[in-house]
């Protein structure tokens, strides 16, 4: 179960970084749209963690709702950090 949560987290992180960087590059410098996918992902993870404490055991692809929530929160946090580093570097050069 731990291996599936780590795998899900890594895949979600990669997808969020690509999506965040694409949105940050296509929008103007004052726009914060590039951060929305990471915020949405972290919020969804928190909802999944809270839902897992209410519902019975639910398995999706080898991980419970709590595992999915942990993976989403991890992906959202790391995706936001990486996106903000690249966005700050791009805005500093311009």
TrEMBL record:
Sorted alphabetically, which keywords does the UniProt record give?
Answer: Membrane, Transmembrane, Transmembrane helix
Among its keywords, does the record have Transmembrane helix? yes
Q: Give me the segments passing through the membrane.
A: 6-23, 35-55, 67-86
**What is this protein's name?**
YesK-like protein
- Give the organism the record lists: Virgibacillus xinjiangensis
What is the taxonomic lineage of the source species?
Answer: Bacteria, Bacillati, Bacillota, Bacilli, Bacillales
